[in-house]
Amino acid sequence: MEAPEVPIEKVHEDLHEHAHAHGKPGWAMGVALSTALLAVLAAIASLLAGHYANEGMLDQMKASNEWSRYQAKSVKENVLRSKLDVLTALEKPVAAKDEEKLKEYRKEEDEIGENAKKLGESSEHHMELHARLARAVTLFQVGIGVSAIAVLTDRRMFWFGGMVCGVIGTIFLVTAFLH
Questions:
Q1: pLDDT tens-digit series, residues 68-118
Q2: 41 partner at 20 to 30 Å CA-CA among 48, 50, 123, 131?
Q3: Those residues with Cβ within 8 angstroms of residue 47's Cβ, 6 or more apart along the chain or in another chain
Q4: What angle is formed at CA 160 by the lines to CA 158 and CA 166, rounded to 5 degrees?
Q5: pTM as predicted
Q6: What is the maximum span of the chain, computed from C-alpha positions, in angstroms?
Q7: 25 contact partners, CB below 8 Å, separation of at least 6
Q8: Are 94 and 88 spatial neighbours (Cβ–Cβ below 8 Å)?
Q9: How far is CA 71 from CA 29, 31, 66, 78, 84, in A?
């Protein structure tokens, strides 16, 4: 899975040029610096989101493989059990080796099933982290865009709105690290 794309380089360049062109290096420079920080955070969150998506998919594939192995063992167990049932019904002797093999299949099924469950849970955990980080990326991008509007329209309220988006995105980023 590809990482979310963060095309903010052009926006940052435009903000920087706009800040110098209008002779207002004060707050426009603050906007440029804060959007640069949001861009760095967006890049980090994007990279991590892609990593966790990949890990989640890999664990899901491994879990699927384990469930396939589980089913194969179950089929073998059922075939052997049927053989033993037929032999018992015909009052024929049942080989001790077959009884042992039946116990071995049951034990292997339990181990494989546990491993498959753990891999499934790991996949869900990775995908949850991916979702949090994807939300962070989105909020950082919105914050950058709204901050650009602030400079272009010369309205500081847009910048504050963009910074609120950045703070919420940072919360998502931090909670992903703490989770």
A1: 999 999 999 999 999 999 989 998 998 999 999 999 999 999 999 999 999
A2: 123
A3: 3
A4: 105
A5: 0.76
A6: 101
A7: 19
A8: yes
A9: 62, 58, 9, 10, 20
Question: What is each CA distance from 164 to 12, 140, 168, 169, in whole angstroms?
Answer: 18, 10, 6, 8
Residue reference for tokens 């949090």? 132
pLDDT exceeds cutoff 80 at 20 = no
State what percent of residues in the chain have pLDDT above 90.
74
CA proximity to 166, closest of 8, 3, 1, 2? 8
Q: Tokens 């360049």: give the residue.
A: 13
CA atoms within 13 A on the CB side of 42: 24
Find all residues with CB under 8 Å of 172, minimum gap 6, and list them.
Answer: 45, 132, 133, 135, 136, 139
pLDDT at 24 over 60: no
Query: What length does the chain have?
Result: 179
